[in-house]
Amino acid sequence: TAIKSDFKPNPNLKLRQKIYTWEEVQKHCHRSDQWLVIDRKVYNITQWAKRHPGGIRVISHFAGEDATEAFVAFHLDPNFVRKFLKPLLIGELAPTEPSQDHGKNAVLVQDFQALRDRVESEGLLRARPLFFSLYLGHILLLEALALGLLWVWGTSWSITLLCSLMLATSQAQAGWLQHDYGHLSVCKKSGWNHKLHKFVIGHLKGASANWWNHRHFQHHAKPNIFRKDPDINSLHVFVLGDKQPVEVVITIDLAWSMSFYLRFFCCYYPFFGFFGSVALISFVRFLESHWFVWVTQMSHLPMEMDHERQQDWLTMQLSATCNIEQSTFNDWFSGHLNFQIEHHLFPTMPRHNYHLVAPLVRALCEKHGVPYQVKTLQKGMTDVVRSLKKSGDLWLDAYLHK
Questions:
Q1: Per residue in 39-52, pLDDT tens?
Q2: Nearest to 303 by CA among 216, 217, 372
């Protein structure tokens, strides 16, 4: 149930700017006219959205809505970011308006904020540098061992297969590590996270950091929501823009990506030649892509998919995610994304702390009757197949009876 707020407007603000109702704010949800609310302050982001560091789409998904919970979840230092919002401020909600829009459960929202305050006070958003240093080390070790096998034992079919398995493993693990840096969950400063993200996803994997950011933050902002989560929409291969800053960024990403392929062919061309090296990286990508898809989709694909329902942060994330049981193997195999619920609720939390916050999240869900699902690894993968079969059957039925 929505609770009326006893918030008192700033008298100085009232002289300069307007007081709005939710009905007025919700009218400004179009591409050429975008307002949003953060902590009861109303901002006009229409022009600034194009310069949003996280991309125009992720912030536009909250046009006409309360974006407070997403704003806090995505930014390492919300107070610092608020400085950049000041020129966009046009007013505040009327004191008679609730703090939450669309009749959201205000008690649940307040309880989740209390949980976040506890998480911050207990230091669960602080990373352990040694953990990530060792993690990077084991990726580089796998790469070195794969190359060493060929130097010592040659290029027989069995050795080449073993080399491919080791490279696929290093690629999968590098995928989880770039995910950590992309979510700003390793370093205290965003700048260092961005630099290391480009190195890991670009030089170690041959992909684009900005392409990943553009898509992945939309997924976290609106998971399993049609037309807003790119993970359930058709894939756009190229994310290009006509502005100079975007062109520069794409050029930098291309350079990082090319450094991966240059390094790969320098290492493996002497053993396999050009076409053999292409076949090797293609096979490694084939193995790694299956690993990636099964891990990421078993926590999302079987869950609810629907159009925008304007839910609070916790309810929205829990309806679209589930966990896989914890074990040493599952943690390593999935890059700790077996704690998908905790990751979605606290996207900047370092992964080694997910298991510490999980009991607190579960208790909060039980209090408010929000389903908290945990599956075995086998059931998670089986549910993916069942979900695909169900979708296929529905499509076939619609096709045959159209």
A1: 999 999 999 999 99
A2: 372
